[in-house]
């Protein structure tokens, strides 16, 4: 099993004046990481946490790391502009089994296209090719059987009870 997580809410990137890699989670995103991502990943029994080096991705997994006693490992292959072929190689490594990987919407879109291009079969619960494009912030994909011939992907939407207030 591999869990692909899109980082939680980090506000509007167009209103952020500094380098985008330094953009933190919003208060809503911090609550989501605590209230939704932690229970999801803890319940799945993840044993490794890999994250894009972007602050918002690291912050999405840090509460899970604290809860499970795991270090969040920055991983260049998950960065927003990383070549998707490097991410494909990372996913093939046995060390990603039972791992949660936090990345960006653009990266998930590129990965979905790469699967189609390379003939990798990852089917959603309806039996169609898993389409990671458009995954909302805080959404996750649980990929079972990735290291086999055919993988299945189950989408877990962002926690609906995290309010946008505060």
Task: Provide a compact summary of the structure.
With 166 residues, this protein is of the alpha/beta class. It contains four helices and seven strands, in the order βαβαβαβαβββ.
Would you give an account of this structure?
The chain is an alpha/beta fold and 166 residues long. It has a single domain (2-10, 21-121, 139-147), classed as Rossmann fold. It has four helices and seven strands; from the N terminus they run βαβαβαβαβββ. The chain has helices at 27-44, 55-68, 84-92, 105-118; strands at residues 2-6, 48-51, 72-74, 99-103, 121-124, 140-144, 150-156. A seven-stranded mixed β-sheet has the order 3-2-4-1-6-7-5, with helices on both faces. Helix 2 (55-68) links the parallel strand 2 (48-51) and strand 3 (72-74). 39% of the residues are buried. The model is unreliable at 161-166 (pLDDT under 50).
Record the strand order, biggest sheet. 3-2-4-1-6-7-5
- H and E string: EHEHEHEHEEE
Give the rounded overall mean pLDDT: 90
**What is the tally of beta strands?**
7
Q: Label the CATH architecture.
A: 3-Layer(aba) Sandwich
Number of domains: 1
> Separation of termini?
35 Å
Structural class assignment: alpha/beta
CATH class: Alpha Beta
CATH superfamily: Phosphoglycerate mutase-like
CATH third-level topology: Rossmann fold
Count of helical stretches: 4
Which stretches are low in confidence, meaning pLDDT under 50 for 5 or more residues running? Answer: 161-166
Residue share in β-strands? 15-25%
Helical content (DSSP H or I, runs of 4+): 25-40%
Approximate shape: globular
The gyration radius over C-alpha positions equals: 15 Å
Main beta sheet strand tally, sense and closure: 7 strands, mixed
